[in-house]
């Protein structure tokens, strides 16, 4: 992991100012002479900038993000706890951690932080911006806000705006966190019990009923200590061991700000700004981002492609079906290259 220290004031969309920023990021491969062989990976909610750690089999020699051919970049998002400025960091004005006082941030703020890093790295063009879940939010906004930079947009298991359904899941998680007295009191070490409960709520949106019913079955004699109960607690404990509750709360609020149409005359009007070739990928059993969310993008961007992964385990399929995704994205790139070749010949 590398860090960029940005010492200039950063104005958020809400009007609040961060007087300085740190941006954590990873790069793989080398930037070409034209500065445009870039794959920019936008990570999801609790991931980090190390693509190899949470999306193994995607970035490396001979893989989809072939580091002999591409310069792969992933930046930890604003508000996280994996190196980029977030609620657990010290507020330079007060000398104490931000915690719940961290500024309200939006997906557009995250993209503008990406832009600071892009300019620092000397990147002149992005071959592909790719994101899943709230990574898709970032990728979509990047293609709208900076359309001349982006050649291809790969949008996976995501939406053009945060739906009321997704907001309701996030609010349920925040209610669980606010019920934790240590979080409500602003204890820097607090919020762990609340986040454990919040993660259990979130898991119900990341998995399908099929997945639970298949993998968490108990014998017919059991009346307590069910496998599904243990699984929820286990997953909650896993997140508590690696993530900061104040960042988690912040990032659920960040997700809820996503609306590509805000201030742009509505979503359909906003999507007209996209100049990139678009691949939108849905997962058939996704409970959190049903496939009509991805079909909407494909239906409203000229020349966009839609592909669906028939996967029974839910939203997290984008982390699991890597081989299938690799084939879909390679086919998309090949189609785009052929289309460009045919246009030049015409």
Please provide a written account of the structure:
The chain is α/β, with parallel strands linked by helices and 346 residues long. It has two domains: 2-163 and 260-345, Rossmann fold (3-Layer(aba) Sandwich); 166-255, Rna Polymerase Sigma Factor, Chain: A. 41% of the residues lie in helices and 16% in strands. It has 13 helices and twelve strands. The strands form three sheets. Strands 1-4-8-5-9-10-11-12 form an eight-stranded mixed beta sheet, with helices on both faces. A two-stranded antiparallel ribbon has the order 2-3. Helix 2 packs across helix 3 (134-145), helix 4 (164-178) packs antiparallel against helix 9 (245-256) and helix 6 (192-206) packs across helix 8. It is globular, with a radius of gyration of 20 Å. The protein starts with a strand and ends with a helix.
Describe the secondary-structure layout.
Blueprint: E1 2-6, E2 10-11, E3 17-18, E4 21-28, E5 38-42, H1 51-54, E6 59-60, E7 65-66, E8 71-75, H2 107-121, E9 126-132, H3 134-145, E10 150-156, H4 164-178, H5 181-184, H6 192-206, H7 209-215, H8 227-240, H9 245-256, H10 267-271, E11 277-283, H11 291-300, E12 305-309, H12 317-320, H13 322-345
Parallel strand pairs: 5-8, 5-9, 6-7, 9-10, 10-11, 11-12
Antiparallel strand pairs: 1-4, 2-3, 4-8
């Amino acid at each position: 992991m590398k860090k960029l220290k940005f010492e200039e004031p950063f104005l958020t969309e809400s009007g609040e100012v961060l007087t300085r920023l740190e941006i954590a990021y990873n790069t793989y491969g080398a930037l070409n002479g034209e500065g445009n062989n870039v794959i920019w990976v936008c990570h999801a909610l609790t991931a980090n900038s190390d693509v190899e750690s949470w999306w193994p089999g995607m970035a490396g020699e001979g893989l989809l993000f072939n580091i002999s051919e591409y310069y792969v970049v992933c930046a930890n998002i604003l508000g996280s706890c994996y190196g980029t400025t977030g609620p657990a960091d010290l507020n330079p004005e007060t000398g104490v951690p931000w915690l719940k006082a961290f500024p309200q941030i939006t997906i557009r703020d995250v993209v503008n932080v990406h832009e600071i890093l892009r300019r620092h790295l000397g990147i002149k063009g992005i071959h592909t911006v790719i994101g899943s879940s709230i990574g898709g939010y970032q990728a979509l906004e990047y293609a709208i806000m900076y359309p001349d930079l982006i050649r291809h947009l790969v949008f996976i298991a995501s939406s053009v705006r945060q739906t009321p359904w997704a907001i309701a899941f996030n609010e349920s998680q925040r209610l669980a966190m606010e019920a934790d007295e240590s979080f409500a009191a602003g204890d820097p070490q607090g919020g762990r019990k609340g986040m454990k409960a919040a993660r259990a709520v979130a898991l119900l949106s990341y998995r399908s009923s099929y997945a639970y019913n298949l993998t968490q079955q108990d014998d017919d004699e059991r009346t307590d200590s069910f496998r599904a109960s243990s699984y929820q607690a286990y997953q909650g404990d896993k997140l508590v061991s690696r993530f900061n509750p104040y960042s988690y709360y912040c990032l659920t609020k960040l997700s809820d700000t996503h609306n590509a149409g805000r201030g742009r005359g509505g979503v359909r009007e906003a999507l007209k700004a996209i100049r990139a070739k678009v691949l939108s990928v849905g997962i058939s059993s996704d409970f959190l981002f049903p496939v009509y969310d991805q079909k909407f993008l494909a239906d409203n961007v000229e020349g966009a492609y839609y592909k669906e992964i028939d996967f029974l385990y839910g939203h997290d399929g984008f982390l699991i079906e890597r081989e299938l995704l690799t084939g879909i994205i390679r086919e998309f790139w090949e189609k785009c290259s052929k289309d460009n070749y045919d246009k030049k010949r015409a």
